Amino acid sequence: VYERFGDWLARFEAELEREDWRAVVARWAPLLAPGLCGAAFHGSIRTAHAVRALARRESEARRHELAVGLAYCCLLYTSD
Question: What angle separates helix 42-56 from helix 21-32, to the nearest 10 degrees?
Answer without folding.
Answer: 160
